Structures are given as C-alpha cells and as structure tokens.
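## retry 2 of 3
previous attempt timed out at serialization; input unchanged, resubmitting
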Amino acid sequence: MGSESPEAFPADGEGPVRQVTLSAFYISKFAVANSQFQKFVRRTGYLAEAERYGWSFVFRSHVPEPLRAAEMPGAPWWARVDGADWSHPQGPDSSIRERSDYPVVHVSWNDAQAWCEWAGYRLPTEAEWEFAARGGLDQKTYPWGDELTPGGQHRCNIWQGRFPDNDLGEDGFTGVAPADAYQPNGFGLFNATGNTWEWCTDYFDAFWHIGATRTDPKGPPSGSRRMNKGGSYVCHESYCWRYRNAARTGTDPDTSTGHIGFRAVRDV
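## retry succeeded, writing output
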C-alpha cells in the first residue's frame, strides 16, 4: 500500500510503501449508480445535503454562465449552481433520465453513509479500496499497470487537453462516464481510477498512518475531512495527478460536487 513515486504529492502522505493485512471483504464492481440511489430516495424520502442546501458545485464548462452563482474558493473551475443535486447533476433543468447506469454524483460523505446503512453495506476503508483498485497487481501505478494508455488505449476517464479550459475528450468523455465504462481490473472492478472520486470511511490525515496498525487499518479516530480515492474526470497531470492507486485526498463530509461518488463494501 502507498507510493513513493515522483508523481506523489508529499502533502497527501501517500508514503511510505507498506505491507498491510486485510480481512476478507466484498466490494461492488461498480460505483453506486443513479438508479440505486434513486430507489433509496423513493423508498425513504431521504433528502441529500445538496437538496437541503439548495445548490452544489458543477464544473463550469458543464453549465451555462448565467447559472454560475459563485466560484469555489481556490478552484474557480467549479461553480456553485443553485438547483444542482444528484438528480439534477448540471443544474435545475438537467436530469438523470438517460443516466440511470451512471455513478451518482453530488452526494456528500453523509449521503453515501446514509445509502450504505439503508442498503446493508458500508463504505470501504482506504486500505480496502486501494487493495481492490490494484486488482492483484503489486505496486503498479494504475489498476492495469504502469502505462497510462497501453497500446494507445484509454483505460480511464480523465482530462486531456489544457486544464481547465479545453477538455479534448480523447478518452470518449468530457464528463461522467457510465459506471461500466472501460475494461475492469484484475478483480473485476470498473473505473477504480478516474471518472469520479470515491468516498472512503476513514478520516483523512496525511501522516497518521505512518505509525498506525498494519492489520485492517481504519484511519484516525477523528478529523474534519473524509478520505477520497481514485481521482476523477477532471484530473490532469498538470495539477491533480491523483488518478493513481495510491493517491489520496480529503474533503469535508458535507461537500457535494459533480465528480464525487462512492462504491460499497460488505463484510464476509
């Protein structure tokens, strides 16, 4: 687990490379889809945090300028859009009608946790997520190996072109892709890297894991941010080379954006 490669961000605490032992677990092959989250909402009446707040962050090129109420501090390519939520991913006039098999986005960590509790699952720990994402390969950069585009073939949904103004979409997408896009890794997981960031249950801390247990690690006991793994469709090597197995970052648990989703885990 972990990485000490030149691509690693020291402040993220990817290293040191370490041997971790995990108990057996099941993990979903796909990120939780819009149709699955919709069933939860219809049966429980749950209101996602973006719905309660009345807005969420949408990538600015995905929404008309008049709908951009404000920019995200420090990341002006994200625009606050009133009326954006999981069922209206690009603002109040959009829908998921043709996207039932796409990963649900605009879900906070709290929303993901609520779905898991209802469905009888849980969020993965960072260690579980990374083990599953690696697909049985040892210390490889991506779920399929070390080369980003083996044989010139795109294997994940990330940014091509000049960020943040021109996404060429050479991988086939300029936004979220279906949950089963591209080839699965050696364990059968789809889109472990790229497409959408995925929530993990751990609190995020850059260095806590250095002295932590190496058996079923679950992250620090407290914190202000929760772990995200995998990168997303807006990741680009010029600023966010986090579409790698070992990459990690943290986000406030009530945050929702158009590029964060989750997948589920169950104990054996």
